[in-house]
């Protein structure tokens, strides 16, 4: 899964058809559905022990072993500004990658539940621009689609995990900004 879908060519509010809409992995955080392009997900793991790291930010849970390599695991709920919840038998770790063609980093994302690998209803996704988001320029949303009639937010994993965004987010949550 080494290819990356280029969403940058999409015009604001452009609806993407099935020929262009990516296959996605859908997962849940609370009552909301989210997705990542399937080519960004290396594998889906059952929850496993995570070794905490000293002085790590709240969103970084620690490291887990993936075939002998220590992979950092982040908490999706924390990244999305949601309160913590208990793990269940449905909790999973999505092993994904961030970065570009020259430099990639493998990271695990702890989710409450992985739902399926699929395409969006009618193969359509609406690209989101900052104008669509009421001038919210810090969005980590590639687009919005529907699956079985429910809204699905396609996440921009690179932007969601951007270190400068995470630093500002952590400071804001601590009341420092």
TrEMBL record:
SMART domains in UniProt: CheW
Domain CheW-like: 21-166
GO cellular component, one term: cytosol
Top-level taxon in the UniProt lineage: Bacteria
InterPro entries per record: CheW, CheW-like_dom_sf, CheW-lke_dom
Coiled coil: none
SUPFAM superfamilies per record: CheW-like
GO BP: chemotaxis; signal transduction
Database matches in PANTHER family: CHEMOTAXIS PROTEIN CHEW (PTHR22617:SF23), CHEMOTAXIS SENSOR HISTIDINE KINASE-RELATED (PTHR22617)
Protein name (record): Purine-binding chemotaxis protein CheW
Lineage, top ranks: Bacteria, Pseudomonadati, Pseudomonadota, Alphaproteobacteria, Rhodobacterales
